[in-house]
Amino acid sequence: MTPVIETAGLTKRYRHTTALADCSVRVPAGRIVGLVGPNGAGKTTLLGLTCGLIAPTAGTISVLGDRPAAGAAQLARVGFVAQDAPAYATLSVADHLRLGARLNPRWDMPLAEGRVRRLGLDPAQKAGRLSGGQRAQLALTVAAAKRAELLILDEPVAALDPLARNAFLRDLGEFAAELGVTVVLSSHLLGDVERVCDHLIVLAAGRVQLAGDVADLLAVHYRLTGDPAGLPAVAEVVHAETTGRDRTAIVRSPEPVPGAERASLEDVGLAYMTRALEGHR
């Protein structure tokens, strides 16, 4: 099966700054992908390249088997929600749906109107008077009703309160399953990613540090408290730190690590990000 996103040696430089370097990833269809990394890691740059908003300096990228933004037909297959959950302040909720219908050939008005009713949004309400959580849900509704095959979300919950964030992520998981759409969710909140994502890409220092299905990654990572001596020969200490008298290490090993417990996705993501940033200094 053709991957939804495939890159090889993808690089983007802005004058003397390299935002993304030698990025090679392969995203299978039907996944909810968590794209995580600290500020400045290259997440927004990778998403911009995926949407065709910017061009690479080097390397290649294929989206749904074609060049990003190759034409109107390819653009219709990709939905994008920017970080600030864009909405037109002077337009009503209903206006947004009508505009979506005019601009998108595969627009699903019953889906859009059904979501608006389920969310309790007033169709006559101006978007500028909606709460942050409501604007994010409106943006998600518009993206979903586009009936895209790939939905890209650039930190959509970063500014939301915990309740609004919880509702957004719950709805995202439900409609992704219902529509069979592939989702790329950029976030610096690993806890949120762990809740809804089944594929992970960790970016740090402009490079991919880790990528793969969540279940496969968790199966080979362990959290070890104490001296990491006596590890299996095939094991690798990703990162270790000492807090007070306690030493904790995140270990990657295809074999069980005696005395260790399974690492959480947050443990794994933080370990790879920390190692990359310490090596980059």
Characterise this structure:
This protein is an alpha/beta fold and 281 residues long. Helices cover 34% and strands 28% of the residues. It contains nine helices and 14 strands. It has helices at 43-51, 72-75, 93-103, 109-119, 132-145, 162-179, 190-196, 214-218, 265-280; strands at 5-14, 17-23, 26-27, 32-36, 58-63, 78-81, 150-154, 182-187, 199-204, 207-213, 221-225, 236-243, 246-252, 261-262. The strands form three sheets. It has a six-stranded mixed beta sheet with strand order 6-7-8-4-9-10, with helices on both faces. Strands 1, 2, 3 and 5 form a four-stranded antiparallel beta sheet that branches. Helix 3 runs antiparallel to helix 4, helix 4 packs antiparallel against helix 5 (132-145) and helix 5 runs parallel beside helix 6.
Task: Give a quick set of tags describing it.
28% strand, 34% helix, six-stranded mixed sheet, alpha/beta, 2 domains, 281 residues, Rossmann fold, globular, 9 helices, single chain
Our count of domains comes out at 2
* Total strands: 14
Helix count from the secondary structure assignment: 9
Average pLDDT: 90
CATH names the topology of the largest domain as Rossmann fold
List low-confidence stretches.
none
- Percentage of residues in DSSP E strands: 25-35%
By secondary-structure content and strand pairing, the structural class works out as: alpha/beta
Major sheet: arrangement of strands: 6-7-8-4-9-10
Based on CA inertia axes, which overall geometry fits?
globular
Helix content: 25-40%
- Named CATH architecture of the largest domain: 3-Layer(aba) Sandwich
Task: Tell me the radius of gyration.
Answer: 20 Å
Distance between the termini: 40 Å
The CATH homologous superfamily name of the largest domain equals: P-loop containing nucleotide triphosphate hydrolases
* Largest β-sheet summary: 6 strands, mixed
